[in-house]
């Protein structure tokens, strides 16, 4: 007995000592092989490992478990250390960039102080000698002498076949570009909202008081300079307004650089103006510090150089010295300086559109920031930081976005050399119809031969432009994206989708109200900063009569949405879509249609609350009732924003049906214009302010009264407090209700109709993925799943009798079709001041998107 106890004691000591066993290299190698396959093996897998590897037989399973825990901990520490090193490198580079920017600003301040002092001196001299003609003449002569000291540079005409002359132009362009990128040649003003940081898009500034329009940006990316230069030179891949870029000549220079003669065409953003083209010289070279420079300028009679190709249907614009300065960073990556400076010949466009061509902020969004975003996007895709589902390669998804934009731009511009021709109107000039029967022109483009019927036909485009007043572009496009049923006709959508097949569907007739359908948006990809979304939209059709069966099939659209960030100054908002079939191949034919809204004027007074206005009660919650607001603080008459809306829809047609398709397209675009006008009136800030201020909400009491009824009814029925507020004032209740973390919403109680939502707090709007204006289009039955509807029907009588009911955890869907889960729901009857039932309130607790 004593001997056996002694043996057990020895065994226990051996087991305890096994905690500190040192693994041999062979054992570590075996464990590492398993870790590579499965970093967190189960208990059964660890026991199997011991049986299969004899060299691990002397190690307890518990110790194997500890080894894997330590290994995972080391891996986590290694990744964290690597991440911190990357952040440190970014911060070091960004600090260097900010120091350089600070030095440049100090130089600019010194220059402005000098100019201010000089102007004061001139004014004092002029005022002291106003009665002395000779002195006045001397002042004039001194000004002329000053001009002679700084004459406008005049360049002799350079021969196209003279590389030395072109190199002289290139070197002058380089010097002027560097003075703008890192010097004080242009008075730069930082754009609002562009804050520097390791993860920001960069430092973005626009010009002030200079010829033309100019924008400047500097940022940090994780790509090497040569790769960055390759991306930036491929301008059509990131500049969506670039129609083509042809290199007509390449001349090597003695310093290892290259000079390229480039002809570039750009699209017009709207049907109301002509497109632009550029004839430029691009110079690529290296500086002594290892930086790469790509600079460019137009060749004109002033600069000299060869004459560019003749223009037809284009207005020749001028590119002033612009380009890219790419500097390598220590530890990898690059610092990029971008300057875009152009003169778009503003006098050649209608006066109402001139702000579009005079805005440096629009130039910054379209070109400067777009270039930085493209580089950051590719950098994150290359590093694996962005993972896309569906098995699509990032390059393919980018190509889809480019094809959608290019197809829409082609439709808006309708260039004759693409085969477009104008079709006669019906006497009213509000909608323009253009046709294109040259199918061969579109080979290898965004179109496909399958779109052109074998027995004759082509593509027809119906387009229109209109001016909008006081309508935020981001809100309008967001509404059009989320509520397609408000403006689209299901029959026309069906015709567009059927045109992808061999036997197109008959031309639809206009039916009042169209066909009931719902849309489900399936995210496909998005850019780094979520300013652009690529998605597939499934349109679910429902047939109620036998003749509607053909329209009841599910249809699919590839959709690109951009510019819905309300805080982006000068950003164009766009919604472009094209029908696709179920296969959705990488080379699927696309025939894009859509909307584009471009702001014409910058926001003036309402850069504060109005800049972030959404379709909700935010303005009421910030300052209380409209009657208590101070004058000028977000009042609608201070919101003076004009924008131009361009609509273009494309359809295929057969020759014998061309007139019918044209009539359908013209009528459809007119109906869409009418729908957009109604939507624009609904979301204009003036309407929002009047609806949410002194006037009551549509079909409901004022927001303050409704909040009081909701909280009081909850306390009466459940015995608990919905909100914890010290003050019982109505405005305090409304503010607490609005910012409540759980989704609270109210729906109507009508015996002869399905319940529709009448109110929701901010969390409720987020859960439903809708806006307060569009909330009343959503029915309660639509968001609940079958189980939820059954439970609510079962508990409805209980709610009406005792006033409330607790509903178990379940699932529902948002207004966009996304599944939402919640841990519990509470439903209670809301009573008005007369103790009569007013509506049904629902609170979804701890909800989240699945």
TrEMBL record:
<protein>
    <submittedName>
        <fullName>Homeobox-leucine zipper protein ATHB-14-like</fullName>
    </submittedName>
</protein>
<keyword id="KW-0371">Homeobox</keyword>
<keyword id="KW-0238">DNA-binding</keyword>
<feature type="domain" description="START">
    <location>
        <begin position="159"/>
        <end position="387"/>
    </location>
</feature>
<feature type="DNA-binding region" description="Homeobox">
    <location>
        <begin position="16"/>
        <end position="79"/>
    </location>
</feature>
<keyword id="KW-0539">Nucleus</keyword>
<dbReference type="InterPro" id="IPR002913">
    <property type="entry name" value="START_lipid-bd_dom"/>
</dbReference>
<dbReference type="GO" id="GO:0003700">
    <property type="term" value="F:DNA-binding transcription factor activity"/>
</dbReference>
<dbReference type="Pfam" id="PF00046">
    <property type="entry name" value="Homeodomain"/>
</dbReference>
<keyword id="KW-0805">Transcription regulation</keyword>
<dbReference type="InterPro" id="IPR009057">
    <property type="entry name" value="Homeodomain-like_sf"/>
</dbReference>
<dbReference type="Pfam" id="PF01852">
    <property type="entry name" value="START"/>
</dbReference>
<keyword id="KW-0221">Differentiation</keyword>
<feature type="region of interest" description="Disordered">
    <location>
        <begin position="125"/>
        <end position="161"/>
    </location>
</feature>
<dbReference type="GO" id="GO:0030154">
    <property type="term" value="P:cell differentiation"/>
</dbReference>
<keyword id="KW-0804">Transcription</keyword>
<keyword id="KW-0175">Coiled coil</keyword>
<dbReference type="GO" id="GO:0010014">
    <property type="term" value="P:meristem initiation"/>
</dbReference>
<dbReference type="InterPro" id="IPR001356">
    <property type="entry name" value="HD"/>
</dbReference>
<dbReference type="InterPro" id="IPR013978">
    <property type="entry name" value="MEKHLA"/>
</dbReference>
<dbReference type="GO" id="GO:0005634">
    <property type="term" value="C:nucleus"/>
</dbReference>
<dbReference type="GO" id="GO:0003677">
    <property type="term" value="F:DNA binding"/>
</dbReference>
<feature type="domain" description="Homeobox">
    <location>
        <begin position="14"/>
        <end position="78"/>
    </location>
</feature>
<comment type="similarity">
    <text>Belongs to the HD-ZIP homeobox family. Class III subfamily.</text>
</comment>
<dbReference type="InterPro" id="IPR044830">
    <property type="entry name" value="HD-Zip_III"/>
</dbReference>
<dbReference type="InterPro" id="IPR023393">
    <property type="entry name" value="START-like_dom_sf"/>
</dbReference>
<dbReference type="GO" id="GO:0008289">
    <property type="term" value="F:lipid binding"/>
</dbReference>
<dbReference type="Pfam" id="PF08670">
    <property type="entry name" value="MEKHLA"/>
</dbReference>
<feature type="compositionally biased region" description="Polar residues">
    <location>
        <begin position="125"/>
        <end position="143"/>
    </location>
</feature>
